[in-house]
Amino acid sequence: MSDSKENKKQIRVWCDGCYDMVHFGHANSLRQAKALGDVLIVGVHTDEEISKHKGPPVFTQEERYKMVRAIKWVDQVVEGAPYVTTLETLDKYQCDFCVHGDDITVTADGVDTYHLVKEAGRYREVKRTAGVSTTDLVGRMLLLTREHFKRGDKEYSVALEHSSNLGTDSTARSPYTGCSQFLPTTQKIIQFSSGLSPKPTDKVVYVAGAFDLFHVGHLDFLEAAHAQGDFLIVGLHTDLEVNRYKGSNYPIMNLHERVLSVLACKYVHEVVIGAPYSVTADLMDHFRVSVVCHGKTPISLDVDNSDPYKVPKLRGCFKVLNSGNSMTTEDIVQRIIRHRLEFKERNTRKEQKEQAVIKTIQKEHIKQNGNCKVVREFLG
User: Is-above-0.85 flag for pTM?
Assistant: First the structure.
């Protein structure tokens, strides 16, 4: 009798999207999609397609392809995937079905981008991660909000409170562009965590920082750090610590969001939540750290004007890595500010299209289920 596992057909799952400013919401959607099958294929749209249907993306297509490839649940990336998902696309990559979140995605003409696969019964839906969106992050940058910071007794917590405006305040009518509050649990961190511990023979590498608005600059650095050993630990500073050395309204993403964004990266094995700014002997001994790395970016002194890397330097295990990528979080913020009006218009158009689809769905519901006073009042 043959092994049933060997004969079992692999379930191939298709996902697609813009994946602009890849955040833990995108990663969580892909994690859920991968759980529905064995192999996850992710199609990423071109800059041209996104600009036509949605408005200008923040990141270039090459940057977005690279970011999606680095998400630990992704097996293959298809570059330049069509904006409307077709059966031909699923068949070409031998995918059984397509998976998307329970939010609405429409073309420039207001057509559901998944209508073809839905009609063919080759569509599955997963829960969208409430409390985070690219729109919300753009809003934080443009408005210099600080509501997302963790302060006082919440400084080390992983609770998320959404920021205001540009999709998240009382004027945000769409449940998809606007963000509801996301209540994190330890289970969410467990779902993102590798669950691995370093083996006694592993060379442990430690890096620390803000890793705010996780981007390709971070990605290239973590890939370089990962190559220095066998087990990579990332220390993440608290929101107030990051704000101390970066100023303004940094970090744009709070501690909880940054933890999940970093954990989703395939090069990272473990994260220290609220790591001390100075790398201490206790920290190095506790995690059996063999090498401590930092990028080419300037190193700010600690509050007492001491070198945060004094201990690893004295131990002769400090390395400055050149990842070949000079991108910083500040560069991303500057991109947004330069195109401020374009992004505001993009968010407005997106919300209007979503509202139109919601009204169409509600009207169809009334036709099928009879008149409903509450729904009629909602529709005006």
Answer: no
